[in-house]
Amino acid sequence: MPAPLPSDQELMSRLRRVMHALRHHSMAALEPYDLTPHQARAFLTISRACDDGAPMRLKDLADVLRIAPRSATEVTDALESGDLVRREPSPTDRRAMVLRVTDKGAKVAREVRAAQADQPLLATLSETDRRRLGEILGRLSTRAEATEKP
Predict the structure, then answer these.
(1) Which of 86, 94, 119 is closest to 18 using CA atoms?
(2) Which of 42, 59, 129, 131 yields a CA-CA distance of 20 to 30 A from 120?
(3) Which is it for the CA torsion 14, 39, 114, 127, positive or negative?
(4) Percentages helix, strand, coil for the chain, rounded to the nearest 5?
(5) CA dist., res. 84 & res. 107, Å (int)
(6) What is the pTM assigned to this prediction?
(7) What is the DSSP string of 50-77?
């Protein structure tokens, strides 16, 4: 006999517990680097762009993270003060500045990615479960993006 269908309230409660556990693990993994989850997300976004050979402008960072330009400036200021990123003139638009990862930042980015990849909660899932969870989260993400205010 299949398990009873959980109510929306029960599903939301379970999602909150999982999100709390993931956030707790993420914060613990970031602690040695003195990064908040928000800073780490911005930092790794900048790092990926640089790895792809396309340093980011502040406006692009704000767009990707879906945050206000002022918030992108603040998080970049914090990353710059930690010598993880630097601003420099854009090679294609002399009016713009781009964000590049420093040598120290490249090392920290590798370490942070490795620390975050060690996620014991997700490690309990089989390949099939991971695929299914990925599909479900993809659908939920698509729906969430469609319903967000522009």
Answers:
(1) 119
(2) 42
(3) positive
(4) 70, 10, 25
(5) 9
(6) 0.81
(7) HHTT-PEEHHHHHHHHT--HHHHHHHHH
For 92, which DSSP code? S
For residues 24 and 27, give the distance between their C-alpha atoms in angstroms, rounded to a whole number: 5
Q: How would you class 35 by CB atoms within 10 Å of its CB: exposed for 0-12, middle for 13-18, buried for 19 or more?
A: buried
Indicate the average pLDDT of the chain: 91
- Give the single-character DSSP code of 131: H
Question: Average pLDDT for residues 92-98, to the nearest whole number?
Answer: 87
pLDDT of 100 strictly over 60: yes
For residue 114, the SS3 value is helix
CATH of domain 22-118: 1.10.10.10
* Residue whose C-alpha is closest to residue 83's, from 106, 62, 64, 61: 106
How confident is the model over 123-141, as a mean pLDDT? 93
Mean pLDDT within 39-48: 96
SS3 137: helix
Q: Is residue 87 within 8 Å of 42, Cβ to Cβ?
A: no
For residue range 83-92, list pLDDT tens digits in order: 999 999 988 8
